[in-house]
Each structure stands twice: as structure tokens, then as C-alpha cells.
């Protein structure tokens, strides 16, 4: 009989361990060491556990089940499942017939077995997790951290951005946390990319602001807010975004006064200041305007509106306005007032520009004199209180005026048949001229006896502040015919009765070779009067080779009313001269006016014929 044997060694020692493991704690939720009070899932339940141990034989395995009651002996939701001793968290799939119900609480049971040959066990149960299948209730999230929960549309800051939110809630599991993500699209487009991924904030946070970004002009920034409840259900909300605007508004026009592109230098008002302006902002648009008003008086410059230096006066958000007038001021004669206009865009950038100012001038222009019938500074010639002229289509006018404050910028002139009247020519503007010829008029002749009609020129001046002078009216103007040369005929027929002198029998031939007789009529100068007559005889029209011009041998007719209060306009002249037969002679009569002008007429000539007729007989 053989006694054959072999010896083998077991894979592990037999440990005699008569004590059960030490129980740990079971936590609800998939995160190790974190006990959740709520879950969002209906088809699975997660749990984690810790601090199970056995000092003698160690933990060899776990058994895990799910119950709807706080009882380790009930596993009505999920039966016990073996779990490796190296695993400390798991998620158990729930059969559809045992699907977890909203707002109900479920518990996880964990059995821990040691490694003894006769295994001992210990059990722990979680404190339960309540099912919340709904998302948080969304509230409102906006860009920026402005007061009164005001949404930021544009930002002037390339480093700072933020968001604020309100009215997020969850009636079942409360809000657990918030997360923020920042997205940017360049050049004001919608091609967004993430520049800061999700950052977690506690559930009591209501706003967040960063100052460490590097944004660019026209960046379109959008912020996402993820709100997570206690069951880890979340809802994501986007702001409407804002645009980064790093440029101020652009000035198109600025000036004193109320009209664009018409900058005033002077004004007469002492109670108001006006400015005209135009700005644009293509990125964020204009938001509102504000002003400051400065006074320069006696060499001292000061801000008068608002009265606190550096403050601004807001004039409202009517971004279409192009002018503003501030009333109720007390301004001073001779002082200069300028307006500083600030245009604020929706990003908050300010473009501020100041007008060159307007000087207050409350005094009107002064007109020193007004003359008619002359240009430049010529003296006015008056006869019996009237200025006489022979021009029926125009009037010469000259004047002198000044304004030492704002200067004279123009004049207005009118012509009428009464003082200050404009029935002949309505008020017409002239620039800086101080003498003009008013043309294109129609001036009927004045009746010398009744002195009707007579004409008046009226003048007023406008200074740079818009002040008008008083109206100055000229000396009345009498319009008469122009100087007119008369008619000259040869011969003495009709000269025996000067009272009935009629020039209708012109002599073409005469017998007498020793005498020349000439008759004249119609020489008139209403304007100046004829002061002298001279006459001459020549063998050519206007010639004086037979007799030079002399004032002698002239006899004038008697006239009741002589034009221009001069010498009468008709008469005859006679002289003894040595004439030659067969030669034609011409007589010239000159009327010389009181101003030296010459009115001249020539006869058509006569021929001396001293030979008798020749009679011839035909036989």
C-alpha cells in the first residue's frame, strides 16, 4: 500500500473573522462624497458610499438595492445587485414598471460583506433622494450690472462685462447653482465663439462682473446663464447681447444760432442763447445731448450754465434735434457767450465741442445822412426844398451809417410817393454799398405847379445782431424833363411880332448879301435853367468861319413861365455880315445852362442869290 501525497497552497489564507464589517454611509447621487437631496431621473438612481471597512478580513463585495421605504429589508424598486469591493458609486437602472415618480423619495440600501470564511455583513441605507423631474422656472437675465435692472445695449469699456438676473426659482428642489458662459462675435455679427466657458456661482448670486477681458470695437457680446436646481436639472438663458463701442459720436455741424451751417457772430437778445448742432454715431447711435454755456466778459471767462463748474445741463434724448435755445437768461451788452454741446452715444462716450461764441449787441445801427441825386459823398442840391432830376427810370442815392459793435451787414431801401412809402419800389436789400443807382423805376413827371407826384427814398440798416435802424427818409424828389435843344430856322419872316413867334417859314434863299437872321425856339433846361445864348455863322453845319460864337444880336420872346427859371427859350438873332452870292450859310444857336452844359442846334442853311433870273425866248 502506497502512501502517495501532494501539497498545495491556497490562493488566499483562511482568515478567521467572527466580527462583521464596520458600516459606512450611503449617499444619494453620482458624485463621490456628495449627498444629493434630489434627482432629475426617473429611469435610474445613482448613489455613492464611503467608510465601509473591516480591519480583519476587509470588504470583499457589496450588494445594492433600491427601496421606496426607509427599510433595509425592502427592495421594491430594484433588487439587490452585487457590486465590486473596488467600486464606491454606481447608478442602477430602473425598470419602466418601477419608474421613479415626481416628488417621491427613494432610498439606496448597501450591504457590505467581509472576507471571512464565514462571511459577515453589515447594511446602511441612504437618507433618501426626492425625484424632481421639472426644470427650474426661468427668470430674466440681462447684460450689465446697471441700477434698476437696466439692460446694457452698448458698452464703452473693452475690459469690463457683466450680467444680472432675477426671478429664477424651483418650487421642488430649489436652485442649486448658476453658471455663466461668455460668447463674442466680432464686427457686430452673430458668428459667436466662446471666450470664457462655464464659471460656477452659488445659488445666492444675482449678478457678476469681470474687468479682465480684452474686447474690441464693434464686438458683439452675449452671455449665457445656466441655472441648475437641486435635482441637477438645468435651464439655459441668453442675454440679448451688447455691442462694444469705443468711439464717440462724430460732429457734422456746430454754430451759434438756430440754423445749421449759419454760424451767428452777434445777437440782440439778452435773455436767450441758441446753438445749432448735428452729430451722428453709426455704431451705437445717439442717446442724448447736454450743454454748458460760458461767458467772456471784461476779459474773464466763466461757466454760467450750470453754475457749478464742470457740471452739464441735460437737454433731453430727442436725438433728432438740431438746435437748442435756452431762455430766461440775463446776458450783458458786449459780452461773448459760447455753448459747449456734448453728444452722448448709447455706449456712454461723449463728443463735446464748443461754438466760437456770439456777442450781445443791443444797440441799432446809426444812419448819419441820406442824400439823393448824387453818388458817393456828393452834396445834395436842393431847390426850394426839393431835389430836382430829369431821370425818369432811376434815382441816385448815397448815405453814411455805422455800427461800432456788430457792424452793418446790409441795408434796405424803398421808394414811394409819401414819406416812408414803398409804392414805387418795395423794400429791397442791398449789401455793404453806401451809394447805389436805383434802376428800373418808372417815375412819371412831376407837375411843377402842384408838385405832384414827388418821390421819397427810405433807408434802414441791419447790424450783425439783427437790430434795425430807424427809417430815414430823403428830401423829396421832383422829376422833370431832360435838357432839350430847340429848333433853329433861317430868315426874318415873323420876327416883327415876338409875342406870336412861330417857326414855320424857313428861308432857303435870300437876296441880301449883308445880313443874316436866325430864329430859335424850344431850348429848355427844367433842371438847371438856360443862363446864356450864343450864336455863330459858317459855311458848314456848326461852322463858325463867317462869324464866331457871340452873345450879341439876340432878342428873346417874353414868356410867363420859364423852365428852370432861366432865360426864355425862344427869340431871334441878326447880324450884318459880308456874304457871297451862291454860297450856303448855316446858323448855329447854343443855349448854355447854369451848370455849363451846352444845348446846340443848327439850321438847315440858306443860299445867297443876288443874280436875277435869266429869261430866254425860243424863236
UniProtKB/TrEMBL annotation:
Q: Which domain of life is it from?
A: Eukaryota
This protein is called: Fibronectin type-III domain-containing protein
Amino acid at each position: 500500500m502506497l502512501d502517495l501525497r501532494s501539497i498545495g497552497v491556497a490562493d488566499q489564507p483562511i482568515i478567521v473573522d467572527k466580527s462583521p464589517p464596520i458600516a459606512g454611509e450611503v449617499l444619494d447621487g453620482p458624485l463621490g462624497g456628495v449627498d444629493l437631496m434630489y434627482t432629475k431621473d426617473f429611469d435610474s438612481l445613482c448613489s455613492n458610499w464611503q467608510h465601509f471597512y473591516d480591519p480583519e478580513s476587509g470588504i470583499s463585495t457589496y450588494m445594492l438595492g433600491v427601496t421606496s421605504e426607509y427599510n433595509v429589508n425592502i427592495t421594491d424598486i430594484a433588487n439587490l445587485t452585487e457590486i465590486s469591493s473596488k467600486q464606491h458609486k454606481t447608478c442602477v437602472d430602473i425598470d419602466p414598471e418601477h419608474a421613479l415618480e415626481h416628488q417621491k423619495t427613494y432610498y439606496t440600501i448597501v450591504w457590505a460583506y467581509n472576507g471571512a470564511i464565514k462571511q459577515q455583513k453589515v447594511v446602511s441605507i441612504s437618507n433618501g433622494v426626492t425625484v424632481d423631474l421639472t426644470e427650474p422656472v426661468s427668470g430674466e437675465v440681462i447684460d450689465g450690472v446697471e441700477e434698476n435692472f437696466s439692460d446694457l445695449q452698448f458698452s464703452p469699456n473693452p475690459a469690463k462685462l457683466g450680467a444680472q438676473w432675477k426671478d429664477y426659482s424651483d418650487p421642488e428642489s430649489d436652485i442649486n447653482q448658476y453658471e455663466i458662459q461668455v460668447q463674442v462675435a466680432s464686427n457686430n455679427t452673430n458668428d459667436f465663439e466662446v471666450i470664457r466657458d462655464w464659471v460656477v456661482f452659488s445659488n445666492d448670486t444675482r449678478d457678476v462682473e469681470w474687468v479682465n477681458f480684452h474686447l474690441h470695437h464693434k464686438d458683439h457680446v452675449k452671455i449665457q446663464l445656466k441655472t441648475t436646481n437641486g435635482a441637477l436639472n438645468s435651464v439655459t438663458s441668453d442675454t440679448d447681447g451688447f455691442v462694444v463701442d469705443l468711439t464717440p459720436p462724430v460732429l457734422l455741424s456746430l454754430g451759434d444760432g438756430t440754423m445749421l451751417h449759419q454760424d451767428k457772430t452777434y445777437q440782440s437778445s439778452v435773455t436767450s442763447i441758441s446753438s445749432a448742432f448735428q452729430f451722428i454715431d453709426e455704431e451705437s447711435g445717439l442717446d442724448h445731448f447736454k450743454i454748458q454755456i460760458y461767458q467772456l466778459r471784461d476779459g474773464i471767462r466763466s461757466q454760467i450754465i450750470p453754475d457749478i463748474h464742470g457740471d452739464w445741463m441735460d437737454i433731453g434724448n430727442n436725438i433728432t434735434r438740431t438746435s437748442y435755445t435756452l431762455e430766461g437768461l440775463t446776458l450783458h451788452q458786449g459780452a461773448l457767450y459760447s455753448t459747449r454741446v456734448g453728444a452722448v452715444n448709447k455706449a456712454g462716450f461723449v463728443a463735446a465741442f464748443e461754438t466760437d461764441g456770439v456777442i450781445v449787441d443791443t444797440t441799432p445801427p446809426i444812419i448819419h445822412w441820406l442824400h439823393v441825386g448824387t453818388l458817393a459823398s456828393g452834396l445834395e442840391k436842393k431847390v426850394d426844398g426839393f431835389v430836382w432830376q430829369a431821370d425818369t427810370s432811376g434815382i441816385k442815392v448815397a448815405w453814411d451809417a455805422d455800427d461800432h459793435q456788430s457792424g452793418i451787414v446790409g441795408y434796405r431801401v424803398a421808394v414811394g410817393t409819401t414819406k416812408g412809402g414803398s409804392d414805387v419800389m418795395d423794400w429791397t436789400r442791398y449789401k455793404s454799398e453806401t451809394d447805389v443807382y436805383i434802376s428800373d423805376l418808372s417815375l412819371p413827371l412831376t407837375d411843377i405847379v402842384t408838385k405832384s407826384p414827388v418821390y421819397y427814398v427810405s433807408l434802414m440798416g441791419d447790424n450783425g445782431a439783427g437790430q434795425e435802424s430807424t427809417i430815414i427818409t430823403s428830401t423829396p424828389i421832383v422829376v422833370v424833363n431832360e435838357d432839350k435843344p430847340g429848333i433853329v430856322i433861317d430868315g426874318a419872316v415873323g420876327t416883327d411880332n415876338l409875342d406870336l413867334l412861330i417857326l414855320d417859314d424857313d428861308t432857303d434863299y435870300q437876296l441880301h448879301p449883308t445880313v443874316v437872321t436866325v430864329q430859335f425856339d424850344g431850348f429848355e433846361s427844367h433842371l438847371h435853367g438856360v443862363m446864356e445864348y450864343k450864336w455863330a455863322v459858317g459855311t458848314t453845319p456848326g461852322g463858325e468861319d463867317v462869324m464866331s460864337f457871340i452873345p450879341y444880336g439876340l432878342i428873346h420872346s417874353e414868356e410867363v413861365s420859364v423852365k428852370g427859371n432861366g432865360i426864355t427859350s425862344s427869340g431871334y438873332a441878326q447880324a450884318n455880315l459880308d456874304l457871297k452870292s451862291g454860297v450856303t450859310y448855316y446858323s448855329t444857336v447854343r443855349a448854355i445852362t447854369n451848370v455849363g452844359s451846352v444845348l446846340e442846334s443848327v439850321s438847315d442853311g440858306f443860299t445867297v442869290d443876288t443874280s436875277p433870273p435869266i429869261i430866254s425866248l425860243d424863236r
